[in-house]
Design a protein that fits this description.
Structural class of chain A: mainly alpha
Number of helices of chain A: 10
Shape of chain B: rod-shaped
Radius of gyration of chain B: 19 Å
Strand order of the largest sheet of chain A: 4-3-7
Largest interface: A-B, 18 and 13 residues
Largest sheet of chain B: none
Oligomer: heterodimer
Helix content of chain B: over 70%
Distance between the termini of chain A: 72 Å
Number of helices of chain B: 3
Strand content of chain B: under 5%
Shape of chain A: globular
Structural class of chain B: mainly alpha
Helix content of chain A: 55-70%
Strand content of chain A: 5-15%
């Protein structure tokens, strides 16, 4: 009985403390009196994070921004390379430079010339970091296999061996079938590229690499090419003369072949959309919850949304792993379907 | 009348929010069904719970993406108007 009273006392204390925080210590009035305060726009903040950029911005002020190189090729001027710091004045306002005008995720020509933009943007820089990390880690693992041949794995090698074995035995081998060994290097690369990209993207200040539709498109197109290269006769018979379907679905109007033909492209399309949306939406959800603090301008909301953000972040780690798993699983499934022998 | 209704920006925001909410309801039903069936399966066959749990998480992630479709599309709609 006494214990019950104590806990209910604490409950009241916590509730009243939050009530006081929510009502009394609310800086809205203070900020409103300052007048010129710019209105907080969460959509702008979220877009700034999920879109690509020509600078890598960490914080305002000195040394908070990394200016990345801009590389442009145009027919009349040839190759141009300059730092993106030229596109800004001292107060970080966009100014035109050499006929190029900065818009958050793209450059435009002020005189309407045509050019090809191959700049090292934030996402490209992050792609290099991701690839460099992958090379560093997996070259170390490969060296480990050479050195301790026939022995137990050591160091970083023992961290990755179970994951590599899992990808081989649970994802690639059962889905691709007997000729799985040819695809294993690519599937492992795919899995670890997406996994590392997802996890690194969750770090503060990181770019939204695997949540970029261009990156996921390239990964999906590679899967499509692998499917088309490795497809056998049986696969194409299934598409253009689907067995077990009544003849009037094939002649004179080819309904079934049409559906199957669209299916060739819709499969990789679903892959690219799934990864893009899962990662981008995760970032949008986290940033929206962070924005709540600034919308309400309250310590209580800040505290509570921080708790929710920590929870969502833990879920995002899970999602990062599952999306890498699912992408690899479906890629190997599609390749396995294309290589399946008639039975 | 209809034209004025279509031009109303606030209605577009409302539509985006309702759409995201409907997607979340659908995903909630889906994940609830998966969770319920997985619990049942684990209770019937406790020795297979590890495998069931993995499959449950993967399928739950697939459905979660559908709810996130709603969130992303609502975000885009609420921005473009």
């Amino acid at each position: 009985m006494k214990k019950y009273k104590l806990s209910s006392f604490f409950k009241y204390l916590i509730i009243s403390a939050f009530a006081v925080l929510f009502t009394v210590i609310n800086p809205t009035g203070v900020l409103a009196s300052e007048g010129d305060e710019e209105e907080f726009n969460p959509a702008e903040l979220i877009n700034h994070h999920i879109l690509d950029d020509y600078v890598w911005h960490f914080w305002d002020g000195h040394y908070g921004t990394i200016f990345l190189p801009v590389i442009i090729y145009s027919d009349d001027r040839g190759l141009e390379v300059f730092s993106s710091s030229n596109l800004f004045d001292e107060d970080h306002n966009a100014i035109p430079y050499n006929d190029y005008e900065y818009h958050h995720s793209y450059l435009a020509s002020t005189s309407g010339r045509e050019f090809i933009d191959v700049s090292i943007t934030k996402n490209v820089a992050f792609l290099f970091i991701n690839s460099g990390l992958l090379l560093f880690v997996f070259l170390a693992v490969a060296r480990g296999y050479k050195k301790n041949e026939g022995q137990a794995p050591r160091g970083i090698q023992s961290l990755f061996e179970p994951i590599i074995i899992y990808v081989r035995d649970e994802i690639v081998k059962p889905n691709i079938g007997p000729k799985y060994e040819r695809f294993l290097p690519y599937m492992l690369t795919l899995f670890f590229f997406i996994w590392f990209g997802n996890l690194l993207g969750l770090l503060p200040g990181a770019a939204n690499l695997t949540g970029n539709i261009a990156v996921t498109s390239v990964l999906a197109i590679i899967t499509l090419i692998l499917v088309l290269i490795n497809s056998n006769k049986n696969y194409w018979v299934h598409i253009f003369n689907t067995p077990g379907v009544p003849w009037w679905l094939k002649l004179p109007v080819p309904i079934m072949p049409g559906v199957e033909f669209i299916g060739i492209f819709s499969k990789p399309f679903s892959l690219l959309i799934r990864l893009f949306v899962a990662i981008t939406a995760g970032h949008i959800v986290i940033l929206s919850l962070i924005s709540l603090t600034f919308i309400f301008q309250s310590y209580t909301v800040g505290f509570l949304s921080t708790l929710v953000i920590v929870f969502i972040n833990i879920i995002e780690i899970l999602v990062a792993t599952i999306q890498a798993y699912v992408f690899t699983l479906f890629s190997s499934m599609y390749i396995g379907m294309a290589m399946e022998e008639h039975h | 009348m209809l034209f004025a209704l279509l031009l109303d920006v606030s209605l577009a925001h409302l539509g985006a929010a309702i759409g995201a909410g409907l997607a979340a309801i659908g995903a909630g039903i889906g994940i609830g069904r998966i969770g319920g069936s997985a619990m049942e399966a684990m209770a019937r066959q406790p020795e297979a719970s590890g495998k069931i749990q993995t499959a449950m998480l993967v399928i739950a992630a697939l459905i979660e993406v559908i709810a996130l479709f709603g969130a992303v599309i609502a975000f885009i709609v609420s921005q473009k108007v």
